Amino acid sequence: MHLLRYHNFVVYDKEDPNYDRAVDGTIRATDAFRTEVLIAASNHSNNGDYRRAIRVINSALLVIENDYELTQQLNIYTALY
Fold first, then answer.
1. Contact between residue 13 and residue 5 where contact means Cβ atoms under 8 Å apart
2. What is the per-residue burial (b if ≥16 Cβ within 10 Å, else e) of 30-53?
């Protein structure tokens, strides 16, 4: 059995006929989540609330661990805080 591990979730067996669709959906959902998090963090930082921006990103990193874009933005907000 060949399983895909994506952000701590087992999605589908690679031989499942819905595998490609599941992977695509997972990637699109992750991208949408990341975008929403970055928008929320940006809104907080634009209001000078870097602490809340950092908290939003840290919470998201619990869901999509080691995400480059989130980590990069977290480093920026941390430096500004």
1. no
2. eeebbeebbebbeebbeeebbebb
CA distances for 23 relative to 26, 27, 33, 66, angstroms: 5, 6, 15, 19
pLDDT above 90 covers a percentage of the chain that reads: 59
Assess if CATH 3.40.228 describes domain 3-80: no
What is the CB neighbour count within 10 angstroms for residue 77? 21
Confidence of residue 25 (pLDDT cuts 50, 70, 90): confident
* The model scores a pTM over 0.70: yes
